[in-house]
Structures are given as structure tokens and as C-alpha cells.
Design brief:
Oligomer: single chain
Strand order of the largest sheet: 6-3-4-7-10
Number of domains: 1
Number of strands: 11
Strand content: 25-35%
Shape: globular
Distance between the termini: 25 Å
CATH architecture: Alpha-Beta Complex
CATH superfamily: YbaK/aminoacyl-tRNA synthetase-associated domain
Order of helices and strands: EHEHEEEHEHEHEEHEE
Length: about 190
């Protein structure tokens, strides 16, 4: 199967594109300390109008769906306390918010965070939120299947552009917990 880089004409090292990334994402890449070399992080410029995964894979190849990952922000509530967390699953799956996420956060209730909260607290654009550069205090829940992806196509923090990074690099992000079954296939 081709890698995500094969779907785009202009793939550049992410380090060469820091000026195109939101501040927290650029800082996380610039200051990367993981064992996966930051030189394996790539940036591709994409049209903001096709930032949504379904439209992007329609334009660049349906095989990308298996190698794309979505990052969503959830709010776990217990009593009066709210915990924001990010969840990353392969794009052909959905985050198990009411099961795996709720249990992992120790919350009575979990739901997707309101858009203004997700955007305001992450410093990123809706539709482009990425696990790279999120607040260090947030739990980051990562589906094990994403870690097993040689290269994952993820958001860049804005609707314009995507990052292509080794799945195992995402397991080295701050606050990460790798979970089997965080992403569930709709209808199963």
C-alpha cells in the first residue's frame, strides 16, 4: 500500500514549514525530543476547503482513509470538574467516547467538547486540530492502531495543510496513553 506522502505533489520537511503552522504546533516540532527523528515529520499544503477527511480522501485517494487519523477534543465531567482531553483514532473509526474515553478519564459523562472550547484551549483551528502541540496538561488518548501506522496523515493545527508523521512518534507525545479499542468501526 502506498504511503500518505505518495498522494501529494509537494511534501516538505515539517521543520522547513514552521512558519505555516500555528504557534503551539511549530514549537512542539521545533523542540521535539522523541526517539523518532523529527526529520521524519512532513508537511503538505492542502486546500482548506478540503480539510475534512472525507473530502480530502475523495480528492487524493480513498486508500488514504486507512492511513489518516483524526484528533478530537472531548470533555470528561465528574461532579463540577471538567477535564479536556484529546483522542486520536484512525479516520475510518469513531472515538468510543461513552466507553473507553469515559472510563480512562474517570468521568461520569464524556462528550465532544464545544467547538469554541476546543479551538480556544488548543490554540488551533477547528477541522485541523492535531495531537502535536496540544496543552501538556491534557490527557492524550491514542488508539493503538494509529501507533501501528507507518505514517499517519493528521491535521496541522489549521485547516490549511496536513502533517504526515510516523505513528510511533505520536506515542511519544506528552501525556499520551495508548489504548486498544479507542476507535470503533461504525456499525460493528
Amino acid at each position: 500500500m502506498p504511503e500518505p506522502m505518495d498522494a501529494f505533489d509537494d511534501v516538505r520537511p515539517a521543520l522547513d514549514c514552521l512558519d505555516l503552522l500555528p504557534g503551539p504546533v511549530a514549537a512542539a516540532i521545533r523542540d521535539w525530543q522523541g526517539t523518532v527523528p523529527v526529520e521524519q515529520f512532513h508537511y503538505v499544503d492542502t486546500d482548506p476547503a478540503i480539510a475534512d477527511t472525507a473530502v480530502l480522501v475523495e480528492q487524493h485517494g480513498s486508500w488514504l482513509l486507512e492511513q489518516s487519523a483524526n484528533c478530537v477534543v472531548v470533555a470528561g465531567k465528574r461532579g463540577g470538574a471538567v477535564t479536556l482531553a484529546a483522542c486520536v483514532v484512525l479516520s475510518h473509526t469513531r472515538v468510543d467516547v461513552n466507553g473507553a474515553v469515559r472510563r480512562e478519564l474517570g468521568a461520569r459523562k464524556a462528550s465532544f467538547a464545544p467547538m469554541d472550547t476546543a479551538v480556544g484551549e488548543s490554540g488551533m483551528e477547528y477541522g485541523g486540530i492535531t495531537p502535536i502541540g496540544l496543552p501538556g496538561s491534557w490527557p492524550l488518548l491514542l488508539d493503538a492502531a494509529v501507533v501501528d501506522t507507518p505514517y499517519a496523515l493528521i491535521g496541522s493545527g489549521s485547516r490549511r495543510g496536513k502533517l504526515i508523521v510516523p505513528g510511533k512518534a505520536l506515542a511519544e507525545l506528552p501525556g499520551v496513553t495508548v489504548l486498544d479499542g479507542l476507535g470503533t468501526v461504525p456499525g460493528e
